[in-house]
Amino acid sequence: MSSQSQYGGDSNMQSKQPANSAEGRVEKAGTPVRREENPSAPARRADKKLRAGVLGATGIVGQRLVSLLAGHPWFELTEVAASERSSGKTYAEAARWHLDGPIPDAARGLVVKGLDLSLDCDFVFSALDSSVAGPAEEDFARAGYPVVSNSMNHRMDPDVPLLIPEVNAAHIDAIPLQQKNRGYDTGFIVTNPNCSTAGLVLVLKPLADAFGLEKVFVVTLQAISGAGYPGVASMDIQGNVVPFISGEEQKMEAEPQKLLGKWDGSRFVDAGIGLSAHCNRVPVIDGHLECVSVGLKKIASLDEVREALRNFEVDADLASLPSALRNPIVVLGEENRPQPRRDVNAGNGMAAVVGRVRECPLLDVKLTLLSHNLVRGAAGAALLNAELLAARGFLKHRVTPSESHLAEPVSS
Asked: Pick the catalytic residue: 72, 121, 195, 279?
């Protein structure tokens, strides 16, 4: 994906396909909003880009972040960090690149550093493995860096926002209390949810708003890229389904409660939804498919459910963010959609694609949803969180040690 198509090139044009084309509906509904379509929406000043660092930059999610930052209108990649075995190499030397297309030119020559608390950047994305992410993210926040994390370690902390901007942007109001509680100055930690939770909660949000939610039952069919690289052994996954992903069901049953809950000024109040999840690994490269049954608090027809999903629209502030979609949910009418191969890249990977909305004999409504686990469920989610934080004034230019040295008066 080129920076042009992601942030302001031809893909920002509305589809010219007929309205009854499924592909046309995917492209139209899942297109980033252009500034000229939203002239009154506030935007961050673009006179000076914020400098971003990526921790865990050589991994699968880190590579996605590096790719998405290429040509970003608000952010500039200035630092990449990884394990000690990669430290000192250029990014091109250290990264075993797994994405389509080459490593972005802006990243190729960057020297990979360790988890150095003097990185030359204004904030950091964390794509670190959970084995090291917890204390490392705290160290960076304590050193004054805002940390936008994809890692699991701090998602359920009582003072850390677990964030999907289209769902619970108001949860960033917890940041000042987090800073006070932990003694952080300019630093803080914000997280995005688990890859399978991200698509599920995005689809549940308009249903919760319109009808209320009582119970949710979900079965996932999760792509192998969600396991990272090298991931699941080929002998285990080829021609097979693995009905277990460590810790996944617990995340899916806990994280939606926080995401769909409230911040009351002092704590997060859970949504109180009955939720059960079964998680399976399937031989698909990208895209998590989820079969969902939902019990609603209010009686709703299938047409009303479809309309609530199809008409879910973010406000002007959120729509103005570079990675945002005005309508982040795409509803398809075909009985055999969505499919990972055909639909995973809807909205540049930021859309949740819904199909097969029908009555459920056990609960009320059942449907199938698809989301890109590495974009909406990981790197794209973190990037959108950072854009929201920047637009709300939480990300600012930091004076680095090198700049501090340059600013020192020359003694006579």
From this structure: 195
